[in-house]
Input
Amino acid sequence: MAVAIPFVREIDIDYGRVDQVSPLVRRVTANNPGGFTYMGTGTYIIGKGTVAVIDPGPNDQAHIDALLKAVEGETVSHILITHCHMDHSPAAAAFKAATGAKTYAYGPHGSGQPKDSVQIEEGADRDFTPDIEVRHGDVLEGPGWSVECVFTPGHTSNHMSFALREEKALFTGDHVMGWSTSIVSPPDGDMATYIASLELLLDRDDELYWPTHGPAITEPKPFVRSFIAHREDRERQIVEQISAGRTTIADMVPVMYEATDKRLHPAAARSVLSHVIKMVADGKLACDGEPSLSSAYRLS
Output
């Protein structure tokens, strides 16, 4: 039986509106809904007077204008980027030019990889390079707020979450979302690293998650545990598929993702690939040559 994930999907969206979602946090949502962005990219503003902005979003002028209006009369001291996908970081350039704020991130796309092997990936913002690179445990501060950097690679190799310590709230980017599981797409996405990053969150005391897409997650630890269990269940399903004679990812996906919109099956295939890469490395599966979308897999 599939793992039941307690998804949370209810969210009141009015594009361009500034929502005060907590005493220290405001959110402005971009009008870029879709199969990977849900209702759109939620850009967060932390603090009052002197503020930090997390994930300015896509290069959409209406959204950039809404953000600039939201911080009118204030000083933007930090622009924080969780990772470099096209719905998260491209607006940083225009927002930086308008505010003079510096950008902060782990590094450019692919910077968490030991080798330069991610240029083929679609959907990556390869134009973004942060002004200041941050690492796990770094703390960024402003008047009345402090943000701890929490390195959570897996969805991408450079994925950084940010914890607002005053509210015990973690801005999880695409690492943990309430409306859907995350895509983990090789070569930059890595399933073993992703699961390790989920396990890291279980050792923290965050009381609330603010994903970039969708509503807040108010019970973080049970939610993260369900995500880990879901990934373990995917491995079980892959073993079942191979045992039933479906040895290629193309054969597995229509069965494993029968209830999923077929338009998302190519992305699902990338996630299955990330699982089989991990399972080959763990000695659970084998194939001839390097694991790929076209490989035939067998049980070890």
